[in-house]
Specification:
The complex is a heterotrimer.
Chain A: E1 8-12, H1 22-31, E2 41-49, E3 52-60, H2 69-73, E4 79-81, E5 87-89, H3 99-103, E6 110-112, E7 117-119, H4 125-129, H5 135-139, E8 145-149, H6 156-163, E9 166-167, E10 179-182
Parallel strand pairs in A: 1-10
Antiparallel strand pairs in A: 1-8, 2-3, 4-5, 6-7, 9-10
Chain B: E1 39-45, E2 54-60, E3 63-69, H1 82-85, H2 87-92, E4 101-103, E5 112-114, H3 117-135, E6 140-144, H4 150-160, E7 165-167, H5 174-184, E8 189-190, E9 197-201, H6 213-222, E10 227-231, H7 237-241, E11 244-246, H8 253-266, H9 272-278, E12 279-280, H10 282-289, H11 294-301, H12 305-318, E13 322-325, H13 336-349, E14 359-360, H14 386-389, H15 400-409, E15 417-421, H16 425-428, H17 432-440, E16 444-449, E17 461-464, E18 476-478, E19 484-486, H18 501-511, H19 522-530, H20 538-545, E20 547-548, E21 573-574, H21 578-582, E22 602-605, H22 621-624, E23 631-634, H23 636-641, E24 649-653, E25 658-665, E26 673-675, E27 717-723
Helix pairs in contact in B: 3-18, 4-18, 5-13, 8-11, 8-12, 8-13, 11-12
Chain C: H1 8-33, H2 42-51, H3 53-66, H4 85-107, H5 110-119, H6 138-161, H7 173-196, H8 203-233, H9 236-241, H10 251-279, H11 288-315
Helix pairs in contact in C: 1-2, 1-3, 1-6, 1-7, 1-11, 2-4, 2-7, 3-4, 4-6, 6-7, 7-8, 7-11, 8-10, 10-11
The chains are: A alpha+beta, B alpha/beta, C mainly alpha.
The complex binds ligand MGD (2 copies), iron/sulfur cluster (SF4) (5 copies) and molybdenum atom.
One ligand MGD binds near residues 171, 423, 467, 697 and 701 of chain B.
Chain lengths: ~180, ~725, ~325
């Protein structure tokens, strides 16, 4: 049994998104995200002219990049990447300089005025540690997020990545993101 | 497989989705479990809307931290929508009702004094007794909307002797229920999971959640498992995901369906064997639909004739895995019943009945019943005069709009006391000014709610109910293709001085000398309901799992035996309805071209958004953050003509009222319609997020109803819009 | 959730840090060039050394108050993250501050020192032990401090330039631009100090500062130009981000106020003032008001450069 390093990631089938915001509220509840801020969000776009309209809804959150710009610039090491790939913020080390927010190409982070630290999606690290799925993954009526260990060939996520076409966002920013959007 | 956990964790915490750690379940409020466990998981049932999804509440140190979906319920499929997730806020809402209140100022002034339960009960009982004394028990009105505790409330009204137990369906789904009941003898479910062709008239399933249809439809539509044809004057999320969206001219869906019927009949595309075995009245139908050519329908609906023909052909080709999906809030137009009837008929003639991918009669589970003393049936006739006005409609639900007319007119007799349970008539009914007049002529109004609704704002006494996360409710069966039994149990003890409906009913009953009819506890009630469920330790099972899923479902074809008797007059599926004819209605759906808004006016239409429930969750900060105030959808060309820019404040007026709100200039609506979301512009100051914010549609909607079902015709209001 | 996280506090901090670096640089250079007491370099070296610690101190305060909670700033010094320009910068600033303070002390005139220590209350009398003449340390400290000053000057630019995800910043030219702007603002500040200090300025002093400033401004200008060219030739996102100063919201500030009034105009004036003296060995004219205005323009230019880059950079993003 060769121990392969885990690499958690998300596959998102954005076509299935109905912009219902269940994921946003679930995250708010799970992680105590203050009102007005959000760890995840839906990019919505309506194109065309009546009656030929097209709508796209694209869920997004921290991409848990392989080469996270946020981690690189963090002066205190508060932002770091766990061995399983999850990028987390250690709140007690964070000085609230917001350099990481500026460095993140996805604007995935926000500043909390109350505690003076920066916050973002941590893939519900505490749920993962209990063996549960991230809250947004679990609650979504469309079940459009697939979470798992992409290094485990038997996982759903690895199978999807092997068989389906996908894209990542803002590849040019060079952070090597780990949210894969199915085409 | 346990879908909730993706990993196996060594510790016991992950044993299963529904393991509550302590025996807290049916204990009464305040009683602490012996060992306090820091983290508990309690399965229960959502009540943020009518869908009753199963959830697992995570409680840490007595505080509800998270509501997780419970995948064991095949209806909610491991889903919890935004509103379900925000259920926590309902409990911890600082402005919720925390103790009984008795009005001290004028009605609607918002001045209250806190009262003890004793006082509140005494006060209400005395008022109710006074009305009974003066006007008889029929002088009281008991109105409520669907909930697990609703039957206790209705029972109190009936035991009190009032025939006037009035429910919400005539503002919601009365016309569709009646149309299917008259055709099939029952309201079936739609097997969207297996359907191949789905046509929907404005049932905006991807925003107005109905489980499991919403989830099925997402999968069908996005995986292209089914072809979805969607008709709606608005570009909704359902429209966005549909294969074809037609912004149909409002009120003309019946023309579309009649033309489809004609194509299918003319081209011999109906299921002959099914029709001859199970249906009556096909000949009359065939004759009836002859004039409705696709060209004619194209003119009426603004959907091209060749598309209508193609859709009719594709639909019949796909049958029986083809359905014309019924809406739920079918309270649209004056002839709504006919439109829903036509849908039912269309589904019948292609044989999409009781087969995979078609309509399926609802499966049921038998629950036990607690026996209690029966009361005498009320003697007076109903104040809404159902027999005279809507002889075929469901008596038990009443006809709310005619009721209001009658109460205001004082016919057939005065109604002077109004008890309201889990309902907000101020916003539920059109023409709010009229509802206020109805309130004003009442001697007494008592409201059972969890928050200061606009109706509570006008009440004399308010009974605060414990929220759904704080109380034990009766067990409910959710009928459907996959019927389930669900349990709602207290997750935490009540935070405030609140009671469940049963205890409120008992408190009143005691003072009204009706205690003998309510001489039981909720535990006894639930025990009786579940004791015969075919599962080991049924009550324990429900406490631990939150749901009981009977085996053997889905079942198809239980009615597909030539000898099967449908619960209709003929025992068959009635394409042509003798009962309608006898009652003086059209036995087959007759189309009348709807009135169109005169120049300078626009039609106001209604609908839902996924994160707001009716009028009741806009004061929930987590939900209203997505839409802090409502706005008026307006087509760009119309806006331009009126000099209105996106975001401008506009005044919207109808014959019954005027409101002001912001405009939202958008391509997503027909040029002859405007739309606004329900639940804003509240009068209740306790709803601080929406008090005076945005506008209440109820203030401008005019009163009109469907003539067969009595269901409200909510889309018949023409409004004038101008920039202010 | 696109927000502008770094505002005027950071702009000021970057400007003040750069200013200190520039002051120290000019001062150190003058100290090293100094041959004897009267060669015109004395006041430059002294004023520069005395002033250098001040802006950076204020700047650091601003930075600390820009943090989520100011009192957590010390955590910056519990870690060293070699990939983080901010971490490197924090340590660098610390070192630079120490050196520039020492250097300032070495340049404090003896009478000030005596007066200061005489005024000390008895309780603090033990401090008198440091009442010594450190003037011998001036050159060594200048030698140590010069690279640090250059480092600080560069760092204010690297802080932005190292952020690969903001196309507007995504070139190492930003660092150089910031460096030369910092050095030039140091010169300008010294020019101002000298013309407003007691005793009329010596022509040699001003000529040296002008010469330096002309070099720095010219270098800065010749980086702005390749920055634009480089940007235009770069990937689409960078090209698009340049729109922020090519028609976008920062166009006027950049071209008119920063480049025109804050760089080219003072550069022109300075060249006009010094050229005749250099080329024809003519006399160096000195007009107090014009000199002051020029210096203020240079300083404003330095501030505006940082303003434009900090704000526009945050607004730029990959699509
Ligand atoms: N203008 C307009 N009118 C409409 C509609 C529309 O879209 N626009 N929709 C129509 C439809 S389809 C329907 S179904 C009706 C719905 O109309 P209502 O049945 O009035 O539904 P809600 O607006 O949700 O209000 C329900 C009330 O129940 C309270 N409540 C919630 N939970 C509890 C609880 O646990 N216990 C108690 N006691 N109270 C509780 C809420 O606070 C709220 O005041 O409205 C109809 N009327
Ligand atoms: N998120 C959410 N889900 C809910 C509820 C909620 O409040 N919020 N409420 C629940 C309840 S009680 C109900 S009754 C259901 C209601 O759910 P639905 O039955 O889907 O009713 P609405 O959401 O009111 O959608 C009606 C649609 O009909 C369109 N329409 C208007 N006129 C016409 C017409 O002439 N022809 C056609 N084809 N379309 C037309 C409107 O634009 C609107 O989009 O939702 C249930 N689910
Ligand atoms: S819960 Fe799922 S469907 Fe709903 S908005 Fe989030 S991603 Fe989209
Ligand atoms: S998305 Fe942003 S915050 Fe998340 S890992 Fe990548 S760079 Fe860091
Ligand atoms: S804000 Fe916190 S996490 Fe972000 S870079 Fe600064 S210290 Fe690191
Ligand atoms: S994974 Fe967890 S933290 Fe991240 S967006 Fe989803 S719910 Fe929020
Ligand atoms: S659809 Fe949403 S609000 Fe309704 S019961 Fe289910 S989770 Fe609760
Ligand atoms: Mo409804």
């Amino acid at each position: 049994m060769a121990a392969r390093a885990k690499r958690y990631a998300l596959v998102i089938d954005a076509r299935k998104c109905i912009n219902c915001k269940a994921c946003v509220v679930a995250c708010r509840a799970e992680n105590g995200v203050p009102l007005g801020k959000s760890r995840n969000w839906i990019n919505e776009e309506i194109r065309g002219e009546y009656p030929r309209l097209l709508a796209t809804f694209e869920p997004e959150q921290c991409h848990h990049c392989q080469d996270p710009a946020c981690v690189r610039v963090c002066p205190t090491g508060a932002s770091r990447q766990r061995p399983d790939g999850v990028v987390v913020i250690n709140q007690s080390d964070c000085v609230g300089c917001r350099y990481c927010m500026i460095a993140c190409p996805y604007d995935a982070r926000f500043f909390r005025e109350d505690s003076g630290v920066v916050e973002k999606c941590d893939l519900c690290a505490s749920r993962l540690d209990r063996g549960e799925l991230p809250a947004c993954v679990e609650t979504c009526p469309s079940k459009l997020r697939v979470f798992g260990d992409m290094n485990d060939p038997s996982s759903d996520i690895a199978k999807l990545l092997a068989t389906r076409q996908y894209r990542v966002k803002k590849e040019e920013a060079g952070t090597n993101p780990r949210i894969f959007y199915l085409l | 497989m346990d879908r909730r956990k993706f990993l196996k964790v060594a510790a016991g915490g992950a044993a299963g989705a529904g393991v509550a750690t302590t025996g807290f379940l049916l204990t009464t409020a305040g009683e602490k479990p012996a060992s306090v466990v820091a983290r508990r998981e309690v399965p229960t049932t959502c009540e943020m809307c009518v869908n009753k999804c199963s959830m697992i509440a995570v409680v840490e140190d007595g505080v509800i931290k998270k509501l997780n979906p419970n995948p064991e319920n095949p209806k909610s499929r491991g889903m919890l929508c935004a509103r379900g997730n925000a259920g926590i806020q309902q409990v911890y809402d600082p402005s919720r009702l925390k103790r009984p209140l008795i009005r001290v100022g004028a009605r609607g002034e918002g001045k209250w004094r806190p009262a003890s339960w004793e006082e509140a009960f005494d006060f209400a009982a005395q008022k109710l007794a006074a009305v009974k004394e003066k006007y008889g028990p029929q002088g009281s009105l008991w109105s409520s909307t669907e909930s697990f505790q609703e039957s206790f409330f209705k029972s109190l009204g009936l035991a009190f002797g009032s025939p006037n137990v009035e429910r919400h369906p005539t503002l919601c789904l009365a016309s569709v229920n009646l149309a299917y009941s008259l055709t099939y003898g029952t309201m079936p479910s739609f097997d969207l999971q297996n359907a191949k062709y789905i046509i929907i008239s404005g049932a905006n399933r991807l925003e107005s959640f109905i489980t499991p249809d919403t989830m099925d439809l997402i999968q069908s539509a996005t995986d292209r498992k089914a072809r979805l044809i969607y008709l709606d004057p608005r570009f909704t999320v359902t429209a966005a995901k549909a294969d074809e969206w037609y912004p149909i001219k409002p009120g003309t869906d019946l023309a579309f369906i009649l033309a489809m019927l004609r194509v299918i009949v003319e081209e011999d595309r109906f299921d002959k064997e099914f029709v001859s075995t199970y249906c009556v009245g096909f000949e009359q139908l065939a004759e009836h639909v002859k004039p409705f050519t696709p060209e004619w329908a194209a003119f009426e609906t603004e959907i091209p004739a060749k598309e209508i023909v193609r859709i009719a052909r594709e639909f019949s080709d796909a049958a029986p895995r083809a359905v014309y999906y019924a809406g739920r809030r079918s309270s649209w137009y004056r002839d709504d019943f006919s439109m829903r009837r036509a849908q039912a008929i269309l589904n019948a003639i292609v044989g999409s009945w009781d087969r995979q991918g078609g309509m399926v009669p609802n499966g049921k589970v038998e629950l036990g019943e607690l026996l209690f003393l029966p009361w005498d049936d009320p003697v007076a006739p109903r104040a809404d005069e159902m027999d005279k006005n809507f002889p075929l409609a469901a008596k038990g639900d009443g006809a709310y709009l005619t009721l209001r007319e009658n109460v205001l007119a004082g016919t057939p007799y005065p109604v002077k006391a109004w008890m309201v349970h889990k309902q907000d008539p101020m916003n539920m009914l059109p023409d709010q000014a009229k509802t206020i007049r109805m309130i004003e002529q009442m001697d007494f109004i008592g409201v059972i709610d969890i928050q200061m609704s606009d109706t509570a704002w006008y009440a004399d006494v308010i009974f605060p109910e414990s929220t759904f996360l704080e109380r034990q409710d009766p067990v409910e069966i959710l009928p459907g293709i996959w019927p389930v039994v669900v349990m709602r149990q207290p997750v935490i003890p009540p935070l405030h001085d609140t009671k469940p409906t049963l205890e409120i009913v008992q408190g009143l009953a005691k003072r009204l000398n009706l205690s003998q009819y309510f001489d039981y506890t909720i535990e006894q009630w639930v025990h009786e309901q579940v004791k015969d469920l075919p599962v080991n330790l049924p009550l324990e099972h429900l406490k631990q799992h939150g749901v009981y899923v009977p085996p053997g479902f889905p079942k198809y074809g239980t009615t597909l035996k030539p000898e099967h008797r449908f619960v209709t007059k003929s025992g068959k599926i009635e394409l042509f309805s003798e009962r309608l004819k006898e009652a003086g209605y059209d036995p087959l759906p007759v189309y009348q071209s709807p009135q169109q808004p005169p120049a300078g006016k626009l039609r106001l239409i209604l609908g839902r958004r996924a994160y707001i429930t009716q009028a009741n969750s806009t004061n929930n900060p987590w939900l209203s953050s997505f839409q802090p105030e409502n706005d008026l959808w307006l087509h760009p060309t119309v806006a331009e003509n009126m000099g209105i820019q996106d975001g401008d404040k506009v005044e919207v007026s109808s014959s019954v009222g005027t409101v002001r709100l912001k405009s939202r200039v958008t391509q997503e609506i027909r040029p002859d319609c405007v739309f606004m979301l329900h639940g804003y512009g509240k009068r209740s100051k306790w709803q601080r997020l929406v008090y005076g914010v945005g506008a209440a549609d109820a203030q401008i909607l005019e009163t009109a109803w469907d003539k067969v079902s009595g269901g409200a015709a909510f889309h018949e209001t023409f409004v004038k819009v101008r920039k202010v | 959730m696109k927000t502008i996280e770094w505002g005027f506090l950071i702009v000021s901090y970057l400007f003040l840090g750069g200013l200190s670096a520039g002051l120290f640089f000019a001062s150190g250079l003058a100290a090293l060039l100094q041959k004897n007491e009267q060669s015109g370099t004395d006041r430059i070296a002294r004023f520069g050394a005395l002033l250098a610690p001040l802006p950076v101190a204020v700047g650091c305060l601003l930075l600390v108050f820009d943090l989520g909670k100011w009192y957590r700033f010390y955590k910056l010094f519990l870690h060293f993250e070699w990939t983080s320009p901010m971490s490197i910068g924090a340590w660098l600033l610390l070192a630079f501050s120490v050196v520039s303070l020492l250097c300032a002390y070495a340049w404090v005139p003896q009478e000030w020192r005596e007066r200061f220590f005489a005024a000390l209350p008895p309780r603090l009398a033990f401090l008198r032990r440091v009442n010594r003449d450190f003037s011998a340390w001036r050159k060594p400290l200048a030698l140590i401090g010069l690279p640090m000053a250059v480092g600080v000057g560069i760092y204010t630019g690297v802080l932005l330039g190292a952020v690969q995800s903001r196309p507007f910043w995504n070139t190492n030219l930003v660092a150089q631009m910031f460096l030369f702007s910092a050095l030039s603002s140091g010169c300008a500040a010294l020019i101002l100090t000298i013309i407003f200090s007691k005793g009329s300025p010596e022509v040699a002093e001003l000529r040296l500062l002008y010469m330096l400033d002309i070099c720095f401004l010219a270098l800065e200008f010749f980086i702005v130009v390749p920055y634009m060219i480089h940007g235009q030739l770069s990937v689409q996102a960078v090209r698009e981000s340049l729109h922020l100063i090519l028609g976008g919201p920062f166009t006027v500030v950049f071209w008119v106020f920063f480049l025109g009034l804050g760089l080219l105009l003072p550069l022109g004036i300075e060249i006009r003032e010094t050229m005749p003296a250099l080329l024809r060995n003519g006399r160096f004219h000195y007009n107090k008001h014009l000199t002051a205005v020029t210096a203020v323009l240079v300083l404003s230019g330095g501030f505006l450069l940082r303003y434009v880059f900090v704000f526009a950079g945050q607004m730029s993003a990959f699509k």
